[in-house]
Amino acid sequence: MLFPHTESGQIELRPAGAKDAARVYEILFRLGHGGLPLLDRYADSFGQGLSACFLVHRKDTGEVAGFSTLSEPSVAGHVTAEVHLGGQPDEIRRDAAVLTVNFAFAMWRIKKVYFHAIDPSPAGIGFAGPDAAVVEAEAVLPRHTYFHGRTWDVHVFAVYRERWDDHGVDLVKNIV
User: Fold this and answer.
1) d(Cα 33, Cα 101) in Å, to the nearest integer?
2) DSSP element (H, E) containing 54
3) Is 35 part of a structural domain of the chain?
4) Euclidean distance between CA atoms 174 and 156, whole angstroms
């Protein structure tokens, strides 16, 4: 039985709501996400299509390091996760990704958690070294997104429940 941990030794995932829309917008803006609507429009639609949204707080400094989200589960049993952390150490990125994925599997009877990233390595989504064993590269969408004046490939990664049950539980135990 999985437990929906929201805290590791280094970070805490705190639920984010409409009152946090401006802070999340600022994080996306700072990270260079193009195509953001005006803040008022973003705030009005904040949280739509999401089943969970968290601010990622660092325990050592108390700062908001970023945020993570989980989409609403699809009828096929999938959710899409996003973890937005800029300039954070690898262990902060790992903890945020591990806790977000674990939360999804603990809360819903889903088959897999998707990540979309421009980095072709699982390390870019927080799963580096041996931790990458829980992640499967599923597809590459060539020149799929545009920002910073150019097009970028989007890499689609998936974490399957079976693999999480076999290996992810140990990842969680190692960080909580």
Assistant:
1) 23
2) strand 50-58
3) yes
4) 26
Note the pLDDT tens digit of each residue in 97-155: 999 999 999 999 999 999 999 999 999 999 999 999 999 999 999 999 887 789 999 99
2 located within any domain: no
CA-nearest of 99, 10, 103 to 58 is 10
What is the distance of C-alpha 140 from the center of its chain? 18
CATH code of 85's domain? 3.40.630.30
Cite the beta strand spans of 8-135 per DSSP E.
11-15, 50-58, 64-71, 78-85, 112-117
Identify the domain containing residue 20 by its residue range.
Answer: 11-175
Number of domains in the chain: 1
- CA-nearest of 131, 135, 27 to 88 is 27
Residues pairing with 85 in the sheet: 66
CA 45 to chain centroid, in Å, comes to 19
Rounded Cα distance, 68 and 34, in Å: 18
Instruction: Establish if 1 belongs to a structural domain.
Output: no
What does the alpha-carbon distance between residue 76 and residue 91 come to, in Å, rounded to a whole number? Answer: 32
